[in-house]
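Table S2 (continued). Query chain:
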Amino acid sequence: MPRRRRLRKIVAPPGFKGYKPYGITHVSKEPVELLYEEYEAIKLADYDLLNHEEAANLMGISRPTFARIYESARRKIAKALVETREIKTVYGNAIMDKSWFVCNDCNSRFTIPKTMDKKQCALCASSNIELINKQ
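Corresponding output:
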């Protein structure tokens, strides 16, 4: 029996639901699904310029596991670029410290402080929001 999968810690969800290639009219190809933990690995290694050991510690996983997640993310992004496929973000095997919400009206992503009673969008004050992290 395999070991239980450890949840990967994510600081914040991606600020997008997906990307589409510009100038492509046919949409018959399946989109590439980029998991939240793969997005986080790309962000930590390439955007925040952390080494794999530091990034793995932030995500609460081992360095070899981080390297596998990072490699998977790079391959998926390369496939999407070369084959002109759409990239969609998927929750995956992640856990977040806070409850993150997305507004269905303005697409902003935010957390709600525990001191606030109302659950509404921080940007447009809409109550048409949904929880991103389904824990």
